[in-house]
Task: structure prediction
Amino acid sequence: MFIILSAAIAPGLALFSYFYLRNQMSTEPRRTLFQAFIYGAFITFPIMFIQYVLQEEGVFASPFIANVLFSSTIEEFFKWLVIFVVIYGHVEFDDPYDGILYGASVSLGFATVENVLYLLSFGIDTAFMRAILPVSSHALYGVLMGYYFGKSKFAKNDKATEYLLLAFLAPLILHLIYNTILSFEDYWVYLVAPFMLFLWWLALNKVKLAHQHLVEHLIEQKKYN
Result:
């Protein structure tokens, strides 16, 4: 049991540490980030409950609708909702890079609990593959979501609402593509590798841009101090 739990939790902690340590300009309170992680963990259960009920009731006409369209949408919506309701207006969300950290925290909270439940059900043999695919992809969706939340919070024009919408739509589109690839049973393995490389490139590019926004934000703050 301990080995399974360790294997399930380790990828999420490693990915979060990576994005946390990349922020060299300021240090976000660990307590607030941990709370964001817990919020992400909690939403796993209502999401799974809704998916189970709708599946048992035969609401979905096809597996594609259930496993790709609905699954992607409900997971990204709940993550977006948690950040918007609990984190977006928080006093600790005080620079653009914070969005990256909070987005990753919420997403990894969800991905970690999902990973624990999956490994408890199917065994540790799938741990490595899940670490590099679903856990990593959730973290990267969270980075993208958090980037646009950061853009929205510190927007100086009328684009705040547009960025909020992008915070939901951008990770949703990527999640839909990922789940669609996995639905191709015969050749998904040939498509998922280039997609994950693209996802990492996109997320790291957003991290770099968030750092630039942070520097600009700090310079602007000094002007008024």
